[in-house]
What we know:
Keywords: Oxidoreductase
Number of domains: 2
CATH architecture of the largest domain: Alpha-Beta Complex
CATH superfamily of the largest domain: Medium-chain alcohol dehydrogenases, catalytic domain
Oligomer: single chain
InterPro entries: ADH-like_C, ADH-like_N, ER, GroES-like_sf, NAD(P)-bd_dom_sf, Quin_OxRdtase/zeta-crystal_CS, Zn-ADH-like_protein
Radius of gyration: 20 Å
Helix content: 25-40%
CATH topology of the largest domain: Quinone Oxidoreductase, Chain A, domain 1
Mean pLDDT: 94
Largest sheet: 7 strands, mixed
Shape: globular
Number of helices: 11
Low-confidence stretches: none
GO molecular function: quinone reductase (NADPH) activity
Pfam families: ADH_N, ADH_zinc_N
Strand content: 15-25%
Protein name: NADPH2:quinone reductase
Structural class: alpha/beta
Amino acid sequence: MKAWLCENPTGVEALQWKDLPQAQPGPGQLRVGIRAASLNFPDLLIIQNKYQMKPPLPFVPGTEFAGVVEAVGDGVTGFKPGDTVAAFTGTGGFATEAVVPAALAMPLPAGFPFEDAAAFICTYATSHHALMDRAGLQPGETVLILGAAGGVGTAAIQIAKAAGARIIAAASTDAKCARCKELGADATINYGSQSLRDEIKTLTEGRGPDVIYDPVGGDLAEAAFRSIAWRGRYLVVGFAQGQIPSLPLNLALLKGASIVGVFWGEFAKREPQRNAEMMKALATWYAQGKIKPVIDQVLPMEDLPQAFARMSGRAVVGKLVVVNRT
């Protein structure tokens, strides 16, 4: 097998495309021939030694992938060689093969393309858990989505639309805002050239959004939170801008608002039954055409450094996918 190996987490330039021994699945494990893997923001942080999870060195990065089961370990039921699966494992995806716990593999329905499957679990599970579980989003409510053109942002637009919400998508360029409109956003804000607070006030007639979905953090957070509606819910999803913001807590008091943490990975570990039910519902929505990953580009696995460069340059709309051609 071949894999992008991180022996020293100093950045993309330290990754090496290497030959590694083929691993055999142990008890409860599957070996998956990887057909496609997607890039998530934590993939960049982890090879820079900036993520909260720091795997033992050396490691193969790649959080999320899809492929074909090649072998099963002892005690595995429900999977056999030839089955197609997607998996979200934290590491291992930027390779030609990976050994994963069977419990982390999601069986794919017939006709689910590998590129879509590789870009599905993280963004849609995060956004559904955030909007439907943590925020309790209701039909007719207004949702402000920051970083709306990114992977989780485009998923959030689709999920909020399926839930019957009104969507204000905020992104950094006119082109990204136009793409958000195509995906179902009712209104957009270009926070690269417009005042976020002024535009929110205009678009909500001074009321503010009921739910704010924030995977960006940084200097947008306080401006957005100051605009939230009475009894609003502010979803802390991530910090793609790099800076973890500090919010004046008196604002929560004055607005009767909630600051709600969103950590889908921990939810999946602590509440596996509810997570499984959610993933089943998301797969049904995909089959019904309500949701579909937005793919920015599909590149060969060997071109992973170029994919990371595009991600670092904030040029991505939706998800980047790298593939192994068979």
